[in-house]
Amino acid sequence: METTQGRPARLRVGVIGPGRVGSVLGQALGRAGHEVVAASAVSDASRERVAGRLPTARVLEPAQVAEASDLVLLTVPDDALPDITEGLASTGTDLRGKLLVHASGAHGYGVLAPATLVGALPLALHPAMTFTGRDEDVDRLANCAFGVTAPEQLRPIAEALVVEMGAEPVWIEEERRTLYHAALAGGANHLVTLVADSAALLSAAGVPEPGRMLAPMLSAALDNALRLGIHGLSGPVLRGDAGTVAGHIEQLRENAPESVASYVELARLTADRAINAGMLKPEDAVRLLDVLRR
């Protein structure tokens, strides 16, 4: 594939799966100077995304999208990746020399093996960002990192594509890909659940605007965690306030029993990390862990 000063030349881009992620990446590649020529779209929502974000793309069948493109975005759900890749490879679609890019965090480039065997060039480019389907999604790429995994000889092209989209490439080894994704999913997805749970409990406690109360504290906590790690911790677990924690569990059992298990498990994990960091005194830890075992 031709390059210009170490960067991919102008490419014809196709999108198979123009959902929240695929439409954003296609739009970002278009902004970088590539031409989005085709997209597959079945649902009305997908067709609307193509029309709104990828206006230069013709709506075609997946095999036709691949044949019309130099770079094919396979932005389908994780579990669908093996089947769509096998389908393209086994039906005689000419994939020779084409960049085949998926955006799954859980997979490396190995999932594209059927296509690689017939000449495709596999890249795994996962944006470490959440996408809501709103217009600001594409602008957020400028402040995020991509987990990049590819055969070593394709690494410069993979990293250059990420830089062209305004983001930062971070190399992830193939065998570490699932661990990498578990870290991101645990942080981002569970954070949303925790915040939503806190807001619901505040509402139950009579707070009229939970988000307004939570925002300054949670913003500070996130900043502390990112800068200081476990040393940014505060609160009753760190202080070894077993009585306070016991009171929390009692109130949760009465008012939100579905939240008890997560509170206890997270308190245990917090205590373990605080003990290992030398932040929680052994005698306080004993009383606290006794409460968390009940």
Automatic annotation (TrEMBL):
Domain DUF2520 residue range list: 144-268
Record SUPFAM superfamilies: 6-phosphogluconate dehydrogenase C-terminal domain-like (SSF48179), NAD(P)-binding Rossmann-fold domains (SSF51735)
Database matches in Pfam families: DUF2520, Rossmann-like
Domain spans labelled Putative oxidoreductase/dehydrogenase Rossmann-like: 5-127
Protein's recorded name: DUF2520 domain-containing protein
